[in-house]
Design brief:
With 147 residues, the protein is mainly alpha-helical. Helix content is 56%, strand content 7%. It has one domain. α1 runs antiparallel to α2, α1 crosses α3 and α2 packs across α5.
């Protein structure tokens, strides 16, 4: 097995969310622990920026992760947009922002082979390629702003 160089990991460190894990919530801890996790906007940006560098089989998984994240946080897209505008976008170089917009447009402009493969992974959930593409396109446009 060869370790893959992970790029854009620093994006995941922008404005992390703090979560407290407690025994009462089912975590097997003797005392509570507070951890930092990437906020959803940083996660979406990192997955999108890194997408073109991934192996083809992993690209479909990442497309599905983007879809699922957008669905999970669909009621909070304005909050994710604020995170984008006030935190994440402010720390990225203009070149990375251009790459991000190009990557997301190329991936979700229409139903692609990657999106079809993502639907195959999600087959037990009966998610269609068109639904994955539409959710990702609309959600990313809402969070990142459509050009």
């Amino acid at each position: 097995m060869v370790a893959q160089k992970l790029r854009y990991l620093d994006v995941l460190l922008i404005a992390p969310w703090s979560v407290t894990l407690r025994r009462e919530a089912g975590f097997g801890l003797t005392e509570q622990a507070t951890i930092l996790i990437p906020n959803p906007t940083s996660y979406l940006v990192q997955k999108s920026l890194f997408h073109g560098l991934r192996k083809p089989g992993d690209r479909a998984k990442d497309a599905l992760y983007i879809h699922d994240t957008l669905e999970l946080f669909s009621g909070s897209l304005p909050v994710l947009r604020t995170l984008w505008q006030e935190s994440v976008m402010q720390t990225l170089h203009e070149r990375a922002i251009r790459k991000l917009r190009a990557q997301t447009d190329a991936l979700f402009h229409s139903v692609s082979d990657t999106v079809r493969d993502a639907a195959l992974i999600a087959a037990p959930r009966r998610v269609t390629p068109g639904a994955i593409q539409a959710v990702c396109k609309a959600g990313l446009d809402e969070v990142l702003g459509a050009d």
